[in-house]
Amino acid sequence: MTAVELKLLLGNAIKEQRYALGISQEELAARAGLHRTYVSEVERGERNPSITSIEKLAQALEVSFTSLFERTGQPLGSHDAVEILLVEDNPIDVELTRNAFKKAQIRNALHVVNDGETALDFVFARGRHADRLKVRPPQLILLDLNLPRKSGLEVLREIKDDGRTQNIPVIILTISDSDRDINECRRLGAETYIVKPVNFQNFSKVTTFLSLSWVLVEPDGTLSARPDMMEPRATTP
Q: What fold does the segment set 84-203 form as a domain?
C-alpha cells in the first residue's frame, strides 16, 4: 500500500465516521481544535496528518485512534512499518521514551542501543549487528548526545557523511535547549531535538515531524529519496 493510498483510506474512514455522527466538517474541526481547511484536506487524502492531529480527530469522532486505522485495512504494526532506533545509555530515559511512544500510540519497532559505537554498528550492519546486513537501516533515529564510547555528535556526523544513511532523519535528545552542541547538530543535518526526559508533552511536539506514512509504512520502499516529513508550518494547527 502506497502512502497516497493510505492517506485516501484514512480520509475516507474519518469522513464516514463524521457522516455516521451527523456532523459537518466545521463541527468536527471545532471539536478537534483544528482548522476546517486542515480537516478538509485530510478527508480528501491531500494531507499527511501528524499523530497528534489524528489523535484529536479520533477523540472528536468518538472512536479510538486504533480503530481509525483498522478501517483502512492497514493495521498498526504492519511488517512494513518503519523501524526506529533509540540511542540512549540511561535506562530511566529509555523507559520514559518507551512510555511516551506508548501514550502517543506509536507502535513501530523500537530498537535500543546504549553507546555510540554500537549505534553505528546497528545502522551500518557491522560488528555484533552484522546479521542486519540484509535488513534496511532504521528509518528514524532518536540520538542522545552524551554517550559512552563515541559521542552523539560523532555518531550524527558519520551518519550524515555517508551517502547510504544521510537521509535518515535524526532527532537529538538533549538535557537542555541551550546545549551548545544543538547548533552543530542542526548544521550536520539533525531534524530537531527533544529536551529530556522524554514524556508525552515534549514528544508530541515531535510527532508533527512524523507524517502518517512514516508512522505506518515507508512511502517508497527505498532510502534513496527522502519522504515528505514536514507538514507546512503555515497551515499546521
A: Rossmann fold (3.40.50)
pLDDT digits (tens, 9 = 90+) for 5-30: 778 888 899 999 999 999 999 999 99
Query: Domain ranges in the chain?
Result: 3-70, 84-203
Whether CATH 1.10.260.40 fits 3-70 = yes
Per-residue pLDDT band at 128 (split at 50, 70, 90): confident
Q: Strand pairing of 84-87 and 110-113?
A: parallel
> CATH topology of 3-70 equal to that of 84-203?
no
- Could you tell me which of 43, 57, 48 has the C-alpha nearest to residue 212? 48
3-state DSSP of the chain: CCHHHHHHHHHHHHHHHHHHHCCCHHHHHHHHCCCHHHHHHHHCCCCCCCHHHHHHHHHHCCCCHHHHHHCCCCCCCCCCCCCEEEECCCHHHHHHHHHHHHHCCCCCCEEEECCHHHHHHHHHCCHHHHHHCCCCCCCEEEEECCCCCCCHHHHHHHHHHCCCCCCCCEEEEECCCCCCCHHHHHHHCCCEEEECCCCHHHHHHHHHHCCHHHHHCCCCCCCCCCCCCCCCCCCCC
Q: Is the pTM of this model over 0.85?
A: no
Q: For residue 210, what pLDDT band results from cuts at 50, 70 and 90?
A: low
Angle, vertex CA 104, rays to CA 98 and CA 106, nearest 5: 70
| Torsion, Cα of 113, 94, 78, 221 (10° steps) | -50
Query: What average pLDDT does the chain have?
Result: 78
